[in-house]
Design brief:
By secondary structure, the chain is of the alpha/beta class. The protein is 37% helix and 15% strand. The protein has a ten-stranded mixed β-sheet, sandwiched between helices.
Length: 401
């Protein structure tokens, strides 16, 4: 299958160290990671033309190379990482191997496509609004967004720095954990989780068929804990949480790229251009008010997510939209998705999505989140949860309202 997952402006291959925990594996990197001696395209041809070759490889990529993994190539992405579908009007859309008539999800679209299509063992990307978690859900993959700041974003084209995180995809939880231990520099035995919270209000935000696909995994997760409960995470405030994320991240995006956009006036896809036009209009009082609101979200989540807690929530509210869907459909899905994906970004918490099954004949994912810094615990829990030795998923009663 021709995946259309890799950049075409130049070929990139870098051999990994001869020894290390990832020796013998092959990975791909989203085209917003710097690779020494190569140009970083960030999904836009004008960005590519107006920036010099990188003089240093991004530390996250260097860590993987030093661990023995070989970089196979750089992957396509949504322009400047400002999208969740995988569409790119300049370079096209990578194939979703799990559902070829559907979008692969973005902005780390090429990385997800390459892993799902078995062009590489794992791939790295970035996650700001869900750009690892949504492609993983749409393509039937495991995907992790780590605790904010755990993996350096130096040498990565930013979008919204207080939300940006380096993440990764794999086809199984064992490799997801191995990659994570290398990137996170984790060697100690991880702690065991002690409590499960099922996000009852967030479960109500998904399509009915998606909900049915998730319930067996909720039941399976419950069987691993002595203490479990259902809870409303945000309740009626979830729309305001999503708006807080949208405004703050947009303001940061303009702060990062506004000067370049104004000076160069690159050609952007209409939806990307509209987001930047919205971003440039956000004023300082709005940013201050929404920054205070973010602190409120963090306090609420910190009170719920005590040490050892795992939160279960949907990854995406819908299956992947059709590749040929209209702009209104894509925007509607995006606005429904942000309430689910904004929480990890606002609170800076690690989140893993895993394949939960199918809805409308396309993959859907279920997610687990942990307190800040408990990435290793979360990786280990998901590996055990999905191991062949574990029992099969069992139907779970719907969460109580």
């Amino acid at each position: 299958m021709n995946l259309d997952a890799y950049t075409r402006h130049e070929r990139v291959k870098v051999s990994g160290a001869e020894d290390g925990p990832l020796r013998g594996t092959v990975f791909s990197a989203k085209d917003n990671f710097d690779i020494s001696g190569h140009r970083t395209g960030a999904g836009n041809p004008t960005w590519l033309q107006t920036h010099n070759k990188a003089t240093r490889t991004a530390p996250a990529v260097r860590t993987l190379l030093d661990a023995g993994a070989t970089l196979l190539g750089k992957t396509l992405m949504d322009e400047l990482a400002y999208g969740l579908t995988g569409r790119n009007m300049h370079y096209g859309m990578p194939v979703n191997p799990a559902a070829p008539e559907r979008v692969p999800g973005g902005s780390s679209s090429g990385s997800a496509s390459a892993v799902a299509g078995r062009a590489c063992d794992f791939a790295i990307g970035t996650d700001t609004a869900g750009s690892i978690r949504i492609p993983a859900s749409y393509c039937g993959l495991f995907g992790m967004r780590p605790t904010h700041g755990r993996i350096p974003t130096e040498g990565v084209v930013p979008l919204a720095p207080t939300f940006d995180a380096v993440g990764w995809f794999a086809r199984d939880a064992e490799l997801l954990e191995r990659v994570g231990r290398a990137l996170l520099d984790e060697s100690a035995e991880p702690a065991e989780p002690s409590r499960l919270i099922v996000a009852a209000d967030l479960m109500r935000l998904v399509d009915g068929e998606v909900h049915q696909a998730l319930l067996p995994w909720v039941g399976r997760a419950r069987s691993f804990f002595d203490e479990t409960n259902d809870a409303d995470i945000a309740g009626d405030a979830i729309a305001d949480w999503a708006e807080t994320y949208r405004l703050l991240s947009a303001a940061e995006a303009w702060s990062c790229h506004g000067e370049w956009l104004t000076a160069v006036t690159p050609k952007l896809a209409p939806d990307i251009a509209a987001r930047f036009d919205f971003a440039r209009r956000i004023d300082a009082p709005t940013v201050r008010a929404r920054s205070d609101a973010r602190e409120g979200v963090r306090a609420r989540i910190a009170a719920l997510m005590t040490p050892g807690t795992v939160l279960c929530l949907p990854t995406a509210p819908t299956p992947p939209p059709a590749r040929e869907a209209d702009e209104q459909t894509f925007e509607r899905v995006r606005l429904r998705t942000l309430p689910l994906t904004c929480i990890a970004g606002l609170a800076g918490l690690p989140q893993i999505t895993l394949p939960a099954g199918f809805a409308d004949e396309a993959p859907v994912g279920i997610s687990f989140m942990a307190p800040a810094g408990e990435d290793a615990m979360l990786l280990n829990f998901v590996r055990i949860l999905t191991s062949p030795a574990a029992t099969e998923p069992t139907a779970d009663a719907p969460p109580q309202a």
